[in-house]
Design brief:
The structure holds 2 protein chains of 2 kinds. By secondary structure, chain A is an alpha/beta fold. In chain A, about 35% of the residues lie in helices and about 25% in strands. Chain A is globular, with a radius of gyration of 18 Å. Chain B is about 70% helix and about 5% strand. The radius of gyration of chain B is 19 Å and the shape is globular. Classes of the chains: A alpha/beta, B mainly alpha. Chains A and B meet through helix 2 and helix 3 of A and helix 6 and helix 7 of B.
Chain lengths: ~240, ~300
């Protein structure tokens, strides 16, 4: 579905991502992990066309989307929920949800309608007329994901979905991600909370200093003491709750 | 009493004019971060479109819609030809481009026409007067206030009810995030320029009706006043632009009445000095929000 082939991204003289190659198949739930400054958000931004790809290629389906405009990439079926939720605070919940309809390509089949997303996020149904800025942090995160789905996303990329949320809300966000995964949406999740991310993801991709360090099953990552100690340390709990 | 009502009408009609123009400036600024100093030329384009129509012998009834259409098309063309190539350039580049565009339009019109004001025939309805008791009312003043109110209501409906309007509000808040929804940036920016051109076109019709003539430089003073009104209201705030326009109109008319005739010629200097004082107290304008700097 999505294939990155030797992708590099530079900010001026600094190479933030270097020769990264991995692919995602339809229905996969992939956790993109790594320490701060590893290049995770930069990589998502490059896939979306928000930052230019210095070298390599990004393919979605059968089409090369490297260097494409953000709007066109969204119309292909990739959507990103950026870090910090980035909802339109002055617009109502309903207006936030309707906006992506304007961005849908005419020929695209409608896979997510308003009723579908409100079925998945019932709390939003009760707040449709409320200003999005008045929602709680957890509700805003739900709105951000719901809005992304309204773009007819086939691949949803979530950048730090739990960032800035209270622990109880973090649980509900990961519960939501499990539900999304269960509904067949392909997910790529960038997350500092590696324990939670690995609990929902089948696969993990680890970046450090802009380079790919691991691409394999979540279990395989958890079983690799070297990788865990090098890149996550005490931040990662084993499934049995044992801290590293 | 009659004099007071008369001056209220003057203030409302002048304020309407400034509100329409300031709102056009603020609409483009809120989406693109550009202060379009070529906005005044849209007034000029309206006037010259009306002049052209009268020379071509087109019936008077079409002057107003075609004049407004001329400004709307002119605004969209400005974006497509002059601003789009510099979309990702620094704000100062866009600002200088708008000054350059203003000069180019003025000079082209100068080459094609004459530097002296050319009389334009306006529909008779704009020149009629009527009396309400002892008060002499110009139809133009009533129309200026009424049409401005209708235009503002229509704009609010567009921004709230239509998806394109909602996208414009979203763009004013977070432009890049709107693109992540798959909404084409070009489309939203084109809408913003079309709205600003439409509003400038309405203002242009009224300005031409007041002056009865057009010249290539007629837009300059008005864009300057619109800029002051938008700054006064709080740049980027659409409501602020409208209220700033009315505040400026009321201020100008009040000073015209209050100032002794020996200093009446310095009215604009007094207006700008007073606006300056307001901005010292509230640098963000009357309705603008102060930018927070986090350290």
């Amino acid at each position: 579905m999505l294939a990155l082939e030797k992708v590099s991204v530079s900010y001026g003289p600094i190479r933030a991502v270097r020769d990264v190659t991995f692919s995602i198949e339809e229905g996969d739930v992939v956790a993109l992990l790594g320490p701060n400054g590893a290049g995770k958000t930069t990589l998502l931004s490059a896939v979306m066309g928000l930052v230019p790809v210095a070298a390599g290629s990004v393919t979605f389906g059968n089409e090369v989307i490297t260097g494409g405009r953000v709007e066109d990439i969204v119309r292909h079926g990739i959507t990103m929920v950026p870090e910090g939720r980035q909802i339109f605070a002055t617009l109502t919940v309903e207006e936030n949800l309707r906006l992506p309809i304007l961005g849908r390509s005419r020929e695209s089949e409608q896979s997510w309608g308003m009723d579908d997303v409100l079925g998945l996020f019932p709390v939003l149904r009760d707040r449709l007329r409320a200003r999005a800025g008045s929602l709680s942090g957890g509700q805003q995160q739900q709105l951000a994901v719901a809005r992304a789905l309204m773009s007819n996303a086939r691949l949803l990329m979530l950048d730090e979905p739990s960032l800035g949320l209270a622990p109880k809300l973090v649980e509900s966000i990961f519960e939501l991600i499990r539900e999304l995964a269960g509904s067949g949406v392909t997910l790529l999740i960038v997350e500092q909370n590696a324990t939670e991310a690995l609990a929902v993801a089948d696969r993990a991709v680890v970046l450090a200093n802009g380079e790919l360090k691991y691409d394999g099953s979540s279990k395989g990552l958890l079983d690799s003491e070297d990788l865990v100690n090098s890149y996550f340390g005490a931040a990662l709990d084993r499934p049995d709750g044992t801290p590293q | 009493m009659t004099e007071i009502v008369q001056q209220i009408l003057n203030a409302l009609s002048l304020g309407s004019l400034y509100a329409l123009l300031a709102l056009g400036l603020a609409t483009v600024f809120s989406v693109l971060g550009l202060v379009n100093f070529a906005h005044g030329e849209l007034i000029t384009i309206t006037g010259f479109t009306m002049l052209l129509m009268s020379r071509l012998g087109i019936p008077e009834a079409f002057f107003i819609p075609l004049g407004i259409a001329g400004a709307t098309v002119g605004a969209v063309a400005m974006e497509r030809v002059a601003f789009r190539p510099f979309r990702n350039a620094p704000p100062t580049t866009l600002l200088v481009t708008s000054f350059g565009l203003s000069i180019v339009i003025q000079q082209v019109l100068l080459l094609l026409t004459e530097p002296k004001p050319l009389p334009v025939q306006t529909p008779a309805v704009l020149r009629t007067r009527f009396s309400i008791g002892p008060i002499d009312v110009q139809m133009l003043q009533v129309l200026m206030t009424g049409v401005t109110a209708l235009a503002l209501i229509a704009l609010v409906m567009f921004l709230r009810r239509s998806l394109s309007g909602v996208a414009m509000r979203a763009a004013a808040e977070k432009f890049d995030i709107l693109r992540l929804m798959g909404v084409r940036a070009d489309r939203v920016i084109t809408w913003a320029f079309a709205v600003s051109g439409f509003l400038a076109g309405i203002a242009g019709v009224f300005i031409v009706a007041r002056r009865g003539a057009v010249d290539p430089f007629m837009g300059f003073v008005f864009v300057l006043k619109a800029f002051v009104a938008a700054v006064l209201g709080g740049f980027g705030s659409l409501i602020g632009a409208v209220l700033g326009g009315f505040a400026l109109g009321i201020l100008e008319v009040s000073l015209e009445v209050a100032l002794p005739s020996s200093v009446a010629g310095f009215r604009d200097a007094f207006v700008f000095a007073l606006v300056g004082l307001v901005l010292i107290v509230r640098p963000q304008g009357i309705f603008g929000e102060r930018e927070r700097v986090e350290i």
